[in-house]
Amino acid sequence: MHKRWMYKTRWTIIIFLTVCIPAGHTQGDSGQIDTLSKDQQALSSSAYSPPIQVSFVRETGEDLQRMIEQLPGETLVDNRWTRLYEQELGIQIRYDWIATGDVYNQKLGVSLAAGRFPDVVRVNPYQLRQLSNANLIEDLTEVYRDFATPLTKNILEAEGKGAFDAATINGKLMAIPESSSSIETAQYLWIRTDWLDKLGLPAPETLEDVLKISEAFTFRDPDGNGEQDTYGLALTSYLWDPVMGVSGFMAGYGAFPNIWIKDSEGGLAYGGIQPEVRKALKVLQTMYLEGQLDPDFAYKNGSKEYRLIQQGKIGMLYGEQWTPFVVQSTREEDPEAEWQAFPLVAEAGRNNIVPLRSNTGNYFAVRKGFAHPEVVVKLMNLHLDKNWGQNAEYETYYNDDSRAVWMLSPVTPFPGTKNLDAYRDIRDARNTGDFSVLENEALAIHKRIAAYESEGLKSGWGWKQTYGPKGAFSIADEYERNGQLLYDQFTGGITETMVDRQIILRDLQLEVFMNIIYGSPIEEFDQFVEDWLELGGKEITSEVNAWYRTDAARDHQAFALSY
């Protein structure tokens, strides 16, 4: 008897698919002029005198709290970043309130609905649209044009105009995107290679090989304890999680369930309702019913499913480049445990395609009437300069001895290709044997890998699995060179119908997919497709294609932001 999973709506989920970057995007400079007038330079870096207070609200969590405990003399409200902002910009950061996880999202939702929120607020695309429609936030078009430095503009615009499209409402830039990276969302297949070796299994070349490995990891006692207590593949209660999700697995069947793809007629179609998804779900259902998946995965978020990894009960998962820092705990329990990243594989006869979503799902809006709306841009300018500009102090302000001190800042934009660039710099230095050319991030990462290789520094293992010769970014480099990356084709932001229906449709999709994996008839997928279209999907598809047909939307490579 299978359990029937009913997914409860969670308003805390940030939806990424509507702000992703098109397949034809180019990296690097978007065409923005690289100079500012002397007056603009002064505006972008001048300090307020006397200092001004700027209010935010803040989400915290276990990782952030653990890090702060390791930083004597620093707290979330008084730390190296808040001191730097006050010293160099005359901006005093104040938090109206600080909360964790669900509590944070609940409080923020109530605050926004009541129109009582701080001077600068971090929102998702839905919240941005709602605040703009209610005329509660400032137009930042001129602020961005006048105060953003060339470095800031180059970084925020590097992947094209998708993030700015999503922040532009009625021709006005209503928030500043907190830029991130699409290629950071690339998926890899992570496998316990010590189990592969023990069972005499080769590395996977097709998805059929992955299924054989999963079966062997489940039934052939890879941990050698004489019990059938291991699982082939890890999943969590949110199927699209960046680690332990199903996106990488489904891609092997040509299924891309949370991005927009081109259809046979040259328009756009939602990947979640395509027949390839049906096939992938059926395979996952078989794996679940055979016991290859944790029977309770649908009730476990990432931190709970992680415990099975820590206990050495999981042999394989799909995840982004930072997965080694999740699976490394296995080595604490079993020093012989070894994991390695492998490229995504597809079923025999199908090309290996790697879907990407945008990481830019958050935007900084400024409360209507706030006297200094430019502060958000000035904070970003300094954050980027101190980490990647001419005045960079990377090991002070970004990563201090493997501690992610960048999280102490209330704004955290970063260059989209910084990690891939660091890998390439380290690779080139390794090939020439000259590591003296490395600086900032690449140098810091190299030091940790070298310390692991020469001194056994434990934290260096994860860095090697990410940036080493066989690490995740060696595969990302291969993905890009081989033209395997599939970017979401819709970058137009939230459409009118999405405002009311998108979260409902996403919840419906997750509920139906989870029910099918748990054993419901596969025909429920066919009903889901009909329901999705009737409950707003048809209108959303029409709106998405209306956007896609415009010359401005299609001419991505010619994009030069005019703000």
UniProtKB/TrEMBL annotation:
<dbReference type="InterPro" id="IPR050490">
    <property type="entry name" value="Bact_solute-bd_prot1"/>
</dbReference>
<keyword id="KW-0732">Signal</keyword>
<keyword id="KW-0472">Membrane</keyword>
<dbReference type="InterPro" id="IPR006059">
    <property type="entry name" value="SBP"/>
</dbReference>
<keyword id="KW-1003">Cell membrane</keyword>
<keyword id="KW-0564">Palmitate</keyword>
<dbReference type="Pfam" id="PF01547">
    <property type="entry name" value="SBP_bac_1"/>
</dbReference>
<protein>
    <submittedName>
        <fullName>Extracellular solute-binding protein</fullName>
    </submittedName>
</protein>
<keyword id="KW-0449">Lipoprotein</keyword>
